[in-house]
Amino acid sequence: MSSSLFPEEKSFGHVYNGRYHLPLLPGEEGTKTGGDWVPRGLRRTTNLVGGISDTKALGIWVLEQTLIGLVRQPSLFEELAMLVHEGDSQGVNWRKLKEHPTLRKALSGTWKDEDSCIAGRARHAAGANEARQAGINRHAAWEYRGKTGGLIGTPEMQEQLQETERLLREAGLERMAGLSERVIRNTEVNAAGKFDDILLDRNTGELLIADLKTKATEFYTWLEVDAQLAVYARAQHMLNEAGDGYERGPASYVSCSKGVVLHQPSDGGPARLRKADLDFGWETALLCREVLDRRSYGKSVARKALSEWPGENLPDPVDIPTDSD
């Protein structure tokens, strides 16, 4: 059946079009149609903190992988050539692709079109998506372990997971039942997200926010990592297990100064534990929020109105005769 005739029924705590669908807080205004959900959804924490990083190197890498993929799978280049030629015949202005959403989606799409657009399939042909999928696999195995106590995945994955557990035991850290894969809402930075774990430090009695990372190498920068965990730790609200309302968020019981990174490299390298600096991370998260707000204002109608030069839109002057006439 057509998805336009039967729209997808949304569930709280899930991501749709890149934003979390969550219920309203007491006294919060809903949609104009009376819906009981946050209008337009909430920005993902990863997207919030991602605005602080220098993405030039990532952009170059993505371009490189796309070009390599077009060579690895010539049929993709053929498809691209046909698409461009058809666009040329229809008079497409390639400098204004946003005016052609269907064509743009076929070429590069968005994050949700990664597996269908030409650019996304080219990167897959180049092997660029291997690390991403390996990371997804490790998150799924870790979540399954927490919920059932069972082990899934390849022998190498299971060994890496058990090595992580050994490191946690040696550090005196223990996963807290019922506090894994929970969705939070942080109203101070207006973002939502899902943390992997809350750990009990048996040495101090503290509860620590923890997140699983699968980057293949050591972290080049801790900006995003620290900021992400800080947003989770300072979240005032957490979606309840029934998924229809909120309960107390981590801010009321976990440390807001330190967190734990569970590092399981996607290339199968040895597991590691790393410390997160949540004081530094929170300062970064607040800065990220300010940057996003300023970007939004810079494109706003209010700011554009301020840019208009006085008298610019006045009627053309009347031709008044002068003495010389």
What attributes characterize this protein structure?
single chain; 18% strand; 39% helix; 10 helices; 10 strands; disordered N terminus; disordered C terminus; 325 residues; ten-stranded mixed sheet
Structure description:
The model is unreliable at 1-6 and 320-325 (pLDDT under 50). This protein is 39% helix and 18% strand. The chain is globular. Strands 1, 2, 3, 4, 5, 6, 7, 8, 9 and 10 form a ten-stranded mixed sheet that branches. Among the domains are: 56-128, no CATH class; 155-287, no CATH class. It has ten helices and ten strands. It is of the alpha+beta class and 325 residues long. The longest helix is centred in the last third of the chain and has 21 residues, at 278-298.
Condensed summary:
This protein is α+β, with helices and mostly antiparallel strands and 325 residues long. Among the domains are: 56-128, no CATH class; 155-287, no CATH class. Helix content is 39%, strand content 18%.
Strand content: 15-25%
Overall pLDDT level: 89
Q: List the uncertain runs.
A: 1-6, 320-325
Can you write the helix and strand succession as a string?
EEEHHHHHHHEEEHEEEEHH
Q: Measured on Cα atoms, how large is the radius of gyration?
A: 25 Å
Biggest beta sheet summary = 10 strands, mixed
Helix percent band = 25-40%
Total number of strands: 10
Secondary structure blueprint with pairings:
Layout: E1 15-16, E2 19-20, E3 42-44, H1 45-50, H2 56-72, H3 74-89, H4 101-107, H5 118-125, H6 130-148, H7 155-170, E4 173-186, E5 191-201, E6 207-213, H8 223-233, E7 237-239, E8 246-248, E9 258-263, E10 272-277, H9 278-298, H10 301-307
